[in-house]
Write a structure and sequence with these properties.
One of its GO terms (molecular function) is kinase activity. InterPro entries: ANTAR, CheY-like_superfamily, GAF, GAF-like_dom_sf, GAF_ANTAR, WH-like_DNA-bd_sf. Helix content is about 60%, strand content about 15%. With about 230 residues, the protein is α+β, with helices and mostly antiparallel strands. A five-stranded antiparallel beta sheet has the order 2-1-5-4-3, with helices on both faces. Strand 4 and strand 5 form a beta hairpin. The radius of gyration is 23 Å and the shape is elongated.
Length: about 230
């Protein structure tokens, strides 16, 4: 049974990763399917979610298989503590066997027990840098829900979710770069037409406007394209 479960999980994740790489579906849908697949294939899990947090204390739920992951993330932000945050910032894997008996994160556990039926949690680090972190989390309404097999399958799922998240971020950066290039190109064209100069001269003028106004180049370009005058 464990081998069949593992094989099914790997096949489903492979299909989703291929879809993401081919851009045959949107990013939010892929993350949502990964999260729902995690909840289905990890033994003992009834809910799953991906938590994203920043160093300034903001916490958000990137995807979730139900209502409780988002509520538990809100409780983590409320108290600036919790297993998902610790998994992402400090440790790679965290398991809580019974929230009602857990001694760590006292304020979080108190509110989680009072406001949700969740009793068992597993959290796995997806990524962490100087500003942002991510964790994949599994939840059960039963205490002691996650055994060693669940941890193993959770780690497999977290590894693939981390790869998917990296693809998402790379795609977003690429799209942002393309949008910036298009804006700068439009602004250069407007300057070339207005002042009868070539593209090199137009770009140098944009750079000087950026420097003199202490404004990013792409922001100056956007102001010109949208009909605003760059601030001096």
């Amino acid at each position: 049974m464990a081998a069949n479960r593992r094989s099914g999980l790997l096949l489903e994740v492979a299909d989703l990763m291929q879809a993401l790489q081919q851009q045959s579906t949107d990013v939010d849908s892929v993350l949502q399917e990964l999260t729902e697949g995690a909840a289905r294939f990890v033994p003992g899990a009834q809910h799953a979610g991906i938590t994203i947090a920043t160093r300034d204390g903001k916490v958000r739920t990137a995807s979730a298989s139900g209502h409780y992951p988002a509520l538990l993330d809100e409780i983590q932000q409320r108290h600036d503590q919790g297993p998902c945050l610790s998994a992402a910032w400090e440790q790679h894997t965290i398991r809580i066997n019974d929230l009602a008996q857990e001694q760590r994160w006292a304020s979080y556990c108190r509110d989680a027990v009072e406001e949700t039926p969740i009793r068992s949690i597993m959290s796995f680090q997806l990524f962490a840098d100087h500003h942002t972190m991510g964790a994949l989390n599994f939840y059960s309404e039963q205490p002691n829900a996650f055994d060693d097999e669940a941890v193993e399958l959770g780690l497999i799922m977290a590894t693939h979710a981390a790869l998917a998240w990296n693809l998402v971020r790379r795609d977003e950066q690429f799209r942002s770069a393309l949008a910036s290039r298009d804006l700068i190109g439009q602004a250069k064209g407007m300057i070339m037409e207005r002042f009868n100069i070539d593209s090199v001269q137009a770009f140098e003028l944009l750079k000087r406007l950026s420097q003199s106004s202490n404004t990013p180049l792409v922001a100056v370009a956007r102001q010109l394209v949208e009909g605003e005058h760059p601030r001096r």
